[in-house]
Amino acid sequence: MKTLMHSLLGATLLLACGLAQAFGLDDLSKQLGEPAVVKGPFIQEKHLRALPQPLVSKGQFVLARDHGLLWLLQTPLKQDYRLDARGISRRDPKGWQALPNKSAGAEQNRLFFAVLQGDSSGLQRDFELSLQGDAQHWQLRLTPRSMLLKQVFKQIDIDGGQFVERIQMLETQGDSTVLRMPSSNSASQLSDTERRDFAE
Question: Do strands 153-160 and 138-144 pair parallel, antiparallel, or not at all (unpaired)?
Answer without folding.
Answer: antiparallel
